[in-house]
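User: Quick sanity check before I run a bigger batch. Here is a single chain. Can you write out its predicted 3D structure?
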Amino acid sequence: MTIPQLRAFIRHGTPLTTAIVVNVLKRHPTPGLTTIELYEKAHQMYPHAFQAAPPPKNGPSSLGKKFFTCPDPPKPTHPIRSVRYLKSVVLKELEELEYVQKIVLHLRDGTPTSPGPDTKAAWRWILSDTLPEYTVDSEIMRQLGTVKTSERENSM
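Assistant: Done. Predicted structure follows.
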């Protein structure tokens, strides 16, 4: 019988995840980003950001129960390892800290407009109007490296 390999990923945001999300949203202020767009931009802008994945652990085998293992996240060594982690952990914590806020846009043919019967609602993340003073320490900036130049040109 094979013992399943379990990993114990952290279940909270880190200063590195906060820095990535705030920097991405600063570069895309209007009309904000969806969770998936935010995830994709974070990986485009900071492809080399690294956070060690936890080592595999052997599950307890003496209980004689079946173990169900979850697949590893799509990017286990990136600070923002999955859309689920970004949405349910990082953005939730940043919303509680009032760094970001979730807004609803009403779109007609992809263009923001006033609410109406033929508009579609779209949820977006933006930086909060009352963003507390946020500074990133030099170690975090070193870990982030530089933004890819093609992304910098696209955001200007």
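The chain is about 35% helix and 15% strand.

User: Great, the batch can go ahead then.
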